[in-house]
Every structure is written in structure tokens, then in C-alpha cells.
TrEMBL record:
Alphabetized Pfam families for the sequence: MFS_1
Lyase keyword on record: no
Superkingdom as given in the UniProt entry: Bacteria
Domain Major facilitator superfamily (MFS) profile intervals: 11-386
Segments crossing the lipid bilayer: 35-58, 78-103, 169-187, 215-236, 248-267, 274-294, 330-358, 364-385
Name of the protein described by the UniProt record: MFS transporter
Keywords: Membrane, Transmembrane, Transmembrane helix
Length: 386
């Protein structure tokens, strides 16, 4: 497998490096937002759910639009560059936020950038390799993305331990963000089938295979129980984890995902996408159950969050590779648009429901709801998606 990884095209490696530096910038900021909201701006779980839900929902709508545009005009790279640029600009501006609606606006801009780039980037990645290497290619991209997610929290932990103000840490995110934009400009867009024929934009899901549509329904159910990861960090803080260790805890998750993403996603090329995703979703259900039941043990948090990294490694690459397996080559951008729309738009109700359940019924109820959705989705995936 190592030989196969190093033989992947340069476009795959460059897009992986882009993900590394972009996620370094993102994860330098991401674990600190719940702390900043609750301890500085005095906002609770409900405000966090509103911020993350709205930001992700709008991002998901744009992912569909950008995917369709990429298929129509065959210019995915321009959208990818614009998306990474917008995110790189918005993150440092969090240092200027004094009320939580301004945090919402900046998270909105960050997710807007993600909406512009995600589907075109995934289409570029899928078009860069043969069908038998899709799991490996997406696994490498996710591994490098998670490498950035390790470096970001580590940098945040060092800066917080040095008593650097959170607002100044936000400003440091500008540097890796700029590197990500520079690398994106260097990527050579792979050739793929051109579908543009002068007709209006086509949003019709019916042109995609029925198995793909069933897959989207199952994904929607799973995502209903998969609220923002910020709730996981908020749970860890509520259990008594020191603030400076919160980024390090999330870095542990990302480290495990980084180490296993390429292998597990590559393994899906041989054992099948559905079995790999099914296993990952079962791990997710177990993790949420344990985190909801954990009422006092701080030591248990570290192996639990490492366990969560295995879920990410098993599913992130395989879920995207399965899209390329099902979709016609000329509709890759559109298929990834619908995939990203489904997984993203459900984050609004997921985050709102989770935040409300936590605030009014307690964390055990909220985490139990997430585990239940994951368990049911895993069963439907196994029985319904062929």
C-alpha cells in the first residue's frame, strides 16, 4: 500500500497539502471557539448550536451549487481557490468579535468558503485517479487534513500555555491559511469529461442512480445524530478538563484519524465501502453512548476521543469514494454537491436538536439521541444500500 500511496498523481498530493495547511489554520481556531463563546462572550450551548447549524447549512447549499457549476463549465479550480481564500481571510477576523452574532457572521464566511471549494475539490480528486485508487486517494487527503488537525491544536495548546490571549491566537491562523491558498493555485486541474452544452443548470437528482439516492437518505439519518464536534469539546470542558488541554484532546482525535485514514480508506478499495462505513458508524454510536454516560472520569476522555478518531478514519474517505463509485463521470461535481448538501444541511437540525436536548434534558439525552440515529443508519446502510 505504501508503494501505491507514493505513486499517486501530484494533484492528489498537492490537494492533500492544501488540506493540511488549511486544517492547521482551522483547528488552531476551532477548539477555542466554544471556550471564547462561553467564557468571554457568555453564550451557552443553544447559541453554539445556532451558530454551527446555520453556518453549516448555508455551506451545504453552496456545495450543491458549486458542484453543478464545476460540471457545467469544467472550471473546478477557480472555485476551489476562491473557497480557500475566503476561509483564510475570515478566521483571523474572529479576533475582532465582541458579541456572538459577529462570531456567527465570521463562521458563516468560513463555511461559505468551504461550500465553494468542497464539491469541486472532491470532483478534482476523484478525476485524478483510477476507480481502484479512489479510497486510497481520499484516504491520503483525509490523513493530511487530519495532520493539520493535529498541528493546529498543538499550536493552540502551546500558545495558551504561554498565556497568549485567544484573540491573538486567532490572528496566527492567517499564516497557514495563506500557505493553503498559495498551494491551491499550484494544483493542475485534471482533465475529465465536459458536460457543458449551453443548457440551464440542472439540479435534477433523478439523473443519478437510485442506489445513490438511497445512500443520501441513510446519510441524512446519520447526520441528524451527528451534530457539531464543538459539543464534544464542550462536554469535555464540562467534565472538568482544563481549558488548555481542550485543543490537545481534539488533537489526539485528529492524530488517530491521520494515522489510520490512508490505511482504512485504502482498505475499502478491497473489502468494500459499505462494510467500512458500517463499522465506522457503529464505532460512532459506541463513542456517543460512552461520552454521554461518562459523568466524572477525565482519564476516560483521552481513550474515548482516540476511539472517535477511528470512526473518522474509517468513514471520511470511504463515504466520498462511494459517491464516485455510484455517480457517472460527467456528474461527479453534481453528485458531490448532493452528498455535501445532504450531510451539511442536516447539521442545522442536528445542532439545534442536540443543543436543545442538552440544555433542557441534559447531556445524556443528547448523546443518546446521536447514538440512536447512528445505530439505525448503520443498519439501513447494510440492508438498503447495495
Amino acid at each position: 500500500m505504501f508503494q501505491q500511496v507514493f505513486s499517486l498523481p501530484s494533484a492528489v498530493w498537492l490537494l492533500g497539502l492544501v488540506s493540511l495547511f488549511n486544517d492547521l489554520a482551522s483547528e488552531l481556531v476551532y477548539p477555542l471557539v466554544p471556550i471564547y463563546l462561553t467564557s468571554v462572550l457568555m453564550a451557552g450551548p443553544r447559541a453554539l448550536g445556532i451558530i454551527e447549524g446555520i453556518a453549516e447549512m448555508v455551506s451545504s447549499l453552496l456545495k450543491l451549487f458549486s458542484g453543478i457549476i464545476a460540471d457545467r463549465v469544467h472550471r473546478a479550480k477557480f472555485l476551489v481557490v476562491c473557497g480557500y481564500s475566503l476561509a483564510a481571510i475570515s478566521r483571523p477576523l474572529l479576533a475582532l468579535a465582541t458579541v456572538w452574532p459577529l462570531v456567527l457572521a465570521l463562521r458563516f464566511a468560513d463555511r461559505l468558503g468551504k461550500g465553494l471549494r468542497s464539491s469541486p475539490r472532491d470532483a478534482m480528486l476523484a478525476a485524478s485517479v483510477a476507480a481502484g485508487q479512489r479510497g486510497l486517494a481520499f484516504g491520503l487527503q483525509r490523513a493530511m487534513d487530519n495532520a493539520g488537525a493535529v498541528l493546529g491544536p498543538l499550536a493552540a495548546t502551546v500558545l495558551m500555555a504561554a498565556e497568549v490571549p485567544i484573540t491573538e491566537i486567532f490572528l496566527w491562523a492567517a499564516l497557514p491559511g495563506a500557505v493553503a491558498v498559495f498551494l491551491t493555485v499550484s494544483v493542475q486541474e485534471p482533465a475529465r469529461e465536459i458536460r457543458y452544452d449551453g443548457e440551464p443548470l440542472d439540479w435534477n437528482l433523478q439523473k443519478l442512480p437510485r442506489a445513490f439516492m438511497r445512500y443520501l437518505w441513510v446519510l441524512a439519518l446519520f447526520t441528524l445524530g451527528n451534530s457539531s464536534n464543538m459539543f464534544l469539546l464542550l462536554r469535555a470542558r464540562d467534565l472538568g478538563l482544563p481549558e488548555y488541554q481542550v485543543p490537545l484532546l481534539w488533537g489526539t482525535t485528529s492524530l488517530v484519524a491521520m494515522l489510520f485514514s490512508t490505511y482504512l480508506s485504502g482498505l475499502s478499495d478491497r473489502v468494500g465501502r459499505v462494510p467500512m462505513i458500517f463499522t465506522g458508524w457503529m464505532v460512532y454510536a459506541l463513542f456517543y453512548s460512552c461520552l454521554g454516560l461518562n459523568g466524572s472520569s477525565l482519564l476516560l476522555l483521552w481513550p474515548l476521543f482516540a476511539f472517535y478518531g477511528l470512526f473518522m478514519a474509517a468513514t471520511e474517505g470511504a463515504e466520498k469514494a462511494l459517491v464516485a463509485d455510484m455517480a457517472p463521470p460527467a456528474l461527479l461535481g453534481t453528485a458531490y454537491g448532493w452528498f455535501n448538501l445532504t450531510t451539511g444541511i442536516m447539521l442545522l437540525p442536528a445542532s439545534l436538536v442536540f443543543g436543545a436536548l442538552w440544555q433542557y434534558a441534559g447531556p445524556l439525552t443528547a448523546f443518546g439521541f446521536g447514538a440512536g440515529c447512528s445505530l439505525l443508519a448503520a443498519i439501513l446502510l447494510k440492508l438498503w444500500v447495495k
